[in-house]
Amino acid sequence: VLSPDIVRHLEHSQIRGLKLRHGRREYRLDDFFEVDGEKSDCLRLQGDLSKVRWIGYGMCGGSIYIRGDVGMHLGAHMQGGSIRVDGDVGDWLGAEMKQGSISVSGNAGNRVGGSYRGSLVGMRNGSIFIAGSAGLELGLRMRRGLIVVASRVREFVGLHMKGGTIVLRQGADARAGAWMKRGTILSFAPLEILPSFHSSGDFNSPFLGVLQRQLLAGVPWGAIADSPASLVTASQSSLASACSPQDQPGTGTPTPTPTPTEAISRSDLNSADGMGDQREWLVNLGWPTHWERLSFRRYVGDRTLAGQGEILVVDPSSLHNSAADRVPDLDPELAPDSQSCGFRS
Question: What percentage of the chain exceeds 70 in pLDDT?
Fold first, then answer.
């Protein structure tokens, strides 16, 4: 329900009347949220949404801006548009997405960009940027696309990976690339390499500089356009507290008086919340600059599946760049749409 594809055609009263499911019951959107605005492909959400699932499911265009924590399945099966979250996100972020971009200023749960149970293919394209950490099985069965994580990731990064690119600033826990067939895992911190991968020597390529410029051009943490928007604000601390068994909206029993979260102003919505200019993003989060100058150790596998994937681990001695280094200038010819970023393995 909470998708630009839905609200772009609705008047204010129709948005308020949208149906939400809580357990086996169905409620109106305004039972839990305060709604402002109408007919817009820019949807802005505010409050504690940690128990709200499937936001942006299958969206084809438009944008979603969320201030607060979000529940599971954000951007699942996404086909276009952009999602920006100033907070943490639950499991299955961008699961089986086909296009679009998602950026998260906090942490993400398990199976980012992964496949659902019984599905053989996860993320097919698009890009996911995470400024915090991520959980288990990042990029599970991903086929194409780009995932960038600034903090350390838990076990089984790139499990059953079939293509695409995963970039790790702080590395990951054990079993990275297990049963990997194709694709690239690029780490700027030491990784524990499985014995089923074999060393293929040192790797240094000017293409890494191209990838860096694509990231600098594609990170969608710039200011939000000053355009009409549908603003949905959580009116209770959580859906669970709002729907206790003794007090259900729509059942004729009294409900608690909503306590709206403080309204956010247009200037707050347009701020980057400390992220700074997007060209400085990689440096601000401790990323090295001038990737084309770095040396990597290349490992190929997983040989248990005759896989041809690669894991590139930076040589610590080549990390001579500091945060004070100047961010390389953007060449428009080397900065295509962020949807096409990454290795086409």
Answer: 72
**What gap in Å lies between CA 321 and CA 326, rounded to an integer?**
10
For the four alpha carbons of 27, 40, 12 and 103, in that order, the dihedral sign comes to: positive
Distance CA 225, CA 269 (A): 9
**Distance between CA atoms of 269 and 169, rounded to whole angstroms?**
28
- Better pLDDT: 47 or 251: 47
Indicate the residue type of 5.
D
Among candidates 204, 134, 194, which has minimal Cα distance to 167?
134
Q: Is the peptide bond before 247 cis (omega within 30 degrees of 0)?
A: no
pLDDT score of 173 more than 70 = yes
d(CA 290, CA 305): 34
What are 205's two structure tokens?
């390529």
> Cβ-count burial of 248 within 10 angstroms (0-12 exposed, 13-18 middle, 19+ buried)?
middle
Residue length of the chain: 345
Matching residue, tokens 């605005």? 37
Cα angle, residue 144 at apex, residues 138 and 287 outer, rounded to 5°:
60
Distances (CA, A) of 110 to 80, 115, 160: 22, 11, 15
- CB of 264 closer than 8 Å to CB of 224: no
Burial class (CB in 10 A: 0-12, 13-18, 19+), 84: buried
pLDDT at 339 over 90: no
What is the rounded distance in angstroms from the CA atom of residue 334 to the CA atom of residue 327?
15
